[in-house]
Amino acid sequence: MKKGWPFKRMLGPGGLGRSDQEIREELELYLELRTEELMEEGMSREEARHEAELRFGDPREVERRLRREAGRTRGREGGRKMMNAIRQDVLYALRSFRRNPGFTLVAALTLGIAVAGNTTIFSVLDEAVFQALPFPEADRLVFVNGVHVTEGGIGVRMASVPEFRDWQAGARNVDRMVGVQGVSLTLGGEGPAERVDAELVSEGYFELLGGEAEIGRTFTPEEASTPEGYPLAVISRGLWERRFGADPGVVGRTIELNDRAFSVLGVMPGTFQGVGPEVDAWVPLGMISVIASVETLDARGARFLPVVGRLAPGATVEQAQAELDGIARELQQTYPDSHEDRFAQVQTFRDGYLGSTGRLLWILFAAGVVLLLVAASNVANLLLVRSHARTRELTVRRALGAESGRVAGQLLTESVVLALLGGAVGLPLAAWGISALMPLLPEGVLPTWVEPSISGRVFAFTLVVLGLVGIGAGLIPAVSSARRDLAGSLKSGGRGTAGGGAGARRVFVVAQVALALFLLVGAGLLTRSFRAQLQVDPGLEMEGVYVFRVSPPAERYPDDESLRLFADEIVRRVGTVPGVGSVAASSDFPFRGRSSGSYIVRPDAVEELIRYHRHSVTPGYFENLGVRLLAGRTFTPADDGEAPGVAVVTAAMVERVFPELPEPEAGVGRTIYIGNPSDPENLAEIVGVVENVRFRNLTQDMMAEPNSPDVFFSILQVPTRTHEISFRSDRPLSELLPGLREAVATVDPSVPMFFPAALADAYRAQTAIPRFAALLMTVLSGLALVLACVGVYGVLAFTVGERAKEIAVRRALGARARVVAGDVVWSGVRLAGLGLMVGSGVALLGGRLLGDFLFQVPAADPITFLGVAGLLLLVVLAAAVVPAWRATRQEPVEALTSE
Amino acid sequence: MSGSDLFTGTLDLLILRTVLGEPLHGYAIGKTIREGSDGILSVEEGALYPALHRLERRGLLESSWGRTDTGRRAKFYRVTEEGRAHLTAEAERWEAFSGAVATILGETGA
Q1: Considering A39, A74, A109, which residue would you say is the last residue of a domain?
Q2: Helix (H) or strand (E) segment spanning residue A602
Q3: Interval B13-22: pLDDT, tens
Q4: Helix spans in A161-288 (H)
Q5: How many domains are contained in chain A?
Q6: Minimal Cα–Cα distance from B63 to chain A, Å?
Q7: Residues of A in contact with B74 (CB under 8 A)
Q8: Residues 76 to 105 of B: which have CB under 8 A from any A CB?
Q9: Could you identify which of A48, A175, A544, B33 might form a hypothetical disulfide with A39, taking C-beta atoms 3.0 to 4.6 angstroms apart as the criterion?
Q10: Cα–Cα distance between A593 and A873 in angstroms, integer?
Q11: How does pLDDT run across A656-703, given as a tens digit for each residue?
Q12: Which residues contact A625 (CB under 8 A, 6 or more apart)?
């Protein structure tokens, strides 16, 4: 690169005056001679010239000052002076980093790692919490959840259609309310049967979500709501391409959904997002018969419909909630039977989609910020030490005429440049972190539109964070240098001016230990909670158990008898597939999230309704899952529709329903009513008691639903439409699938099998979120621990160096090495102890935030606190050993005579 | 602004002292100060020139264009009588000042 005259640019078009030329010539000679001098030291000409210019400082600044001396300073130089100063400071900073690669590496890595952690978490948080939802006016969209508010706090998030219509008619603060029933339908007709996700929607659905058909049109209000009126379907762009080869004349063509013919009305654009993820077809709510009887539309007790709506302009969630509370109370009075304890809960779309995951993300983000604080205080510490070591250099610069503000500005610039170097390390690391992190997140934890990346916003966030860290970490050294007593520095040869800086460094170390403890406690609590969940005995033998779901359509399997035959045949056929052992059918299956509940009553206390979870199973069910029988028997093929009603219950059920019995086994022989006690058909005798089993959710079973015991019925007596077919096998699922498909097709080719899975995988998915949270927190706190350790070591090592003379004198006067070393270690332990106390206090307060996410571990868990404090103390001791050892190795004479 | 700083005068003194013996051009002055101070004064070498020009304007230095040993055109600075007197006075003041500071620091420092 040709090095031209650096002043040319700023002299402008006015040309050079005579003295301008002289100034130029004079300075150029200096640079030229300096270059030659540096070349003699072995640099190439270019390097030498570059170095000469760097050392010279900004020539433009020098030139400007010369011209000011000459009394010819032009105006409007303020901004330029600033820019020049910054440029010079940056160059100076880079040069000084090049001279101290070790310091630079440690500081940049420290910041880089912390920034990477922070940016990674922010990228997820930003997408999930801040990014606009993929709907127009998304911040006004709400879920209106039908809930049962009882002591047990059970929430059923659905409404019945009459209830939905009452809300719709009464709520002024929600100007559009739409019922959306997400269902899985069998798509038939031309081509193979396929399972598609569809939504049954009431009028106004597409208007609410802001979607217009790309081809054709969407439903009119009449089409959407008339019972059995209009068998029409709007399909997704994906289905249109897949199923119809993107036929532009698709409108009017017929598709079969659950064996019913629907006429295609329109195609939605690929960008359209339904309420549920990946919806392929929309059908009028009036066509409810595709999944249930048409009477469902009028049944006040048939609560199956999720409701969404849009807040009226200016209305708030609170106003809408208050209004719906009023409506719910009126309904409770009008329909005391079907609306007891019923309320409607208004929830923003974001809260509805994110659930508690949003709070978890905020907690993890806060942990990232804490890690960043630890890193920043570490870097501030390094800078302080460095500025101390550079006291002489800085003093001389000031003596040579640099204003004290400029020196402080220089130090600040250095730390900002350092922060940017950290960013250069951290951003690629964050990009890697995102790609490593996302696969760890189980599906369904985050809404489908959350796709974290280093977006513009994330990048801007990182830059702002880096700027803040740079300024924050550089401020203390800068201020302390500006205050430093110059004469004292010169006099004492640039030593012994540590006063203010040393105090700040100790504060940093205390803060680091406190923050590290805070994070470690969080990680410890989450890890112990996760461990506790792993240790929950679900009461099942999970290895080698597989399951898939089939749902015979109501048209061809209209009654109990046909369903029974279907189930029999499926079980028999699947049993003939090579590699498949014993087969069972059931209405639901552990960790597959589909158990249905209703009410049972004791014959001697019919007024008390006890909510329970209902399971219909074939005789082989218990054996396949390895559920132990405590007393009585399980089902036999003789427990059919003709035989008296029988039930198998869990030990917890007996304890809940018959608390007077001395032991669960004594429940055998008792009777219960399943539903209305006035009908003797509803009476069932308990013939067996099995051990407790965690069917739905590892943690919630024990914590949230103590009032909802499990009751099993013979599938022959209480039939089900949806069948979970489970079986044992020692082969991998993929090997079995073709045979299973064939077996199902033999029974009925139009019935697809879906959700095939290994039970062990479904179980593992249960612990995915706690695993994820515990893992991330452990990584963050581990990094904080390392950084705190570095911080403690740095301060102690520096103190030993600083006190070398004092230590030497003490040694010369006869102090034992052990005493001197003990002193150093003790000063470290004192700092750490202070940090531990502060950190424990903070963690006790902060731990409450984790409360909801902790399972069987109290937020103030003494084991976690003591364990973490012990670990930190050990690490601090280890960090203190080397400086202590060094203190004892110092030669007294050498220390005393060295400057 | 910089004039108000207590130590701005230090560089002036060093320059005056350097050119006391013989006329020197800027580079030679810088090099002498640099080498005479173990390289400590190597930072912001450019600050030399504003100081030179300031001293010249105040009449403590005078300059003329001449040739270096290698025949390059250069501006040589030489100390004036006024400069010589200034150096003597300021050097005394400096010694008195730094002596006083040293005494105070000696009492309280390590």
Answers
A1: A74
A2: strand A596-602
A3: 888 888 888 8
A4: 161-170, 205-209, 221-225, 237-244
A5: 4
A6: 12
A7: 26, 29
A8: 98, 101-102, 105
A9: A48
A10: 45
A11: 888 888 988 888 999 988 877 777 778 899 999 998 877 666 555 433
A12: A540, A541, A545, A590, A693, A726
